[in-house]
Design brief:
alpha/beta, 11 helices, 41% helix
């Protein structure tokens, strides 16, 4: 049974958290290696450096809890138990992909794992998550919906409309802002008139907590406490998690030579790497065993994607609403 209090974490918990984080990291590193070969048929937005948010939050969720995410959604998809083979096939544009090859990297979905879907349009997943939360409340269920967004989404009108609606109707939703400090290439100080996001959120009567350094244990504990309160009918909650993407906005390369990113900041965040911190809590044998398992899983997923056929032409007309 998963222990939600960090005080009671044991080696089994550390192994589980390390394996989840390692799977995301190595999967995305493999994607970055494959991308230049053109076997991946869509743009990619890597989550490397931001894994702690998705892993920390999803580790305390139940199987029947739903998540909704952004175009930088590989970490969320895998953290919630999304099928890696189906995800890799989707990136390859193959029929066995989780969206039948139509969505690519930015549109991942796994209904069995309760991944509502990720979206390429900034903030568009927020009202969708809200609809799911309203549905679950009307059905009298005690599961929750977790809506992940970037800092750029907080600048959209639908963000504030959704905060108001969720608070007004006490919806079972946890908002999680992954604030990596930039919207494409624009830093926050050029976009936000005030950094006091908490004041704006709390103005709707929504509980708010902020983390500064992607501490996976702090993120996990706050998520657990908020999830419990939401299930008890205490209304929506909001987590504001500062984090940092290691790679460029879109693509597999580094961009610390760009004017909006600094090597100093990059170095600071890499020293906070959740993967290294988790690794330090395990034995060398455990680390090596997990890494071997992860590498086999990724190799199997790539082989599955390569073997999967491309969709037939008829697929262009199937599952399309217009």
């Amino acid at each position: 049974m998963t222990s939600y209090s960090n005080e009671h974490l044991n080696q089994h918990d550390f192994r589980r958290l390390y394996r989840a984080t390692c799977l995301i990291r190595r999967t995305e590193q493999r994607i970055a290696e494959l991308y230049p070969t053109d076997c991946i048929k869509s743009p990619i937005h890597l989550s490397i450096g931001q894994e702690a948010v998705s892993v920390g939050v999803c580790d305390v969720l139940r199987n029947d809890d739903w998540v909704s995410g952004t175009y930088r959604g590989h970490a969320l998809y895998l953290s919630k138990g999304g099928d890696l083979k189906a995800m890799m096939a989707e990136l390859f544009g193959k029929i066995d992909g989780c969206a039948r090859g139509k969505g690519g990297s930015m549109h991942l979905i796994d209904i069995e794992a309760k991944v509502i879907g990720t979206s390429a349009v900034v903030a568009s997943n927020i009202p969708v998550a809200l609809g799911y939360a309203l549905t679950e409340k009307l059905r009298g269920r005690d599961n929750i919906i977790v809506c992940f967004m970037g800092d750029g989404a907080t600048e959209e009108g639908v963000f504030y409309e959704s905060l108001n609606f969720s608070a007004l109707h006490d919806l079972p939703i946890l908002f999680v802002c992954e604030n990596n400090g930039v919207a494409i290439h624009n830093p926050i100080d050029k976009r936000w008139a005030s950094r006091a996001l908490g004041q704006r959120v709390e103005g709707y009567g929504i509980g708010y907590q902020e983390t500064e350094d992607s501490d996976i244990f702090e993120i996990r504990e706050i998520a657990a406490a908020f999830a419990e309160k939401i299930r008890d009918g205490d209304g929506p909650k909001f987590m504001h998690c500062h984090t940092y993407r290691w790679h460029e906005h879109v693509g597999p390369l580094q961009d610390t030579d760009a004017p909006y990113r600094s090597i100093k900041t990059d170095t600071i965040w890499r020293e906070r790497d959740a993967l290294k911190h988790l690794e330090s809590r395990l034995s060398c044998e455990d680390v090596e065993d997990i890494q071997r398992t992860v590498e086999r899983q990724i190799a199997d997923a790539v082989a599955f994607a390569e073997a999967s056929p491309f969709p037939p032409e008829q697929e262009l007309f199937d599952h399309v609403l217009a």
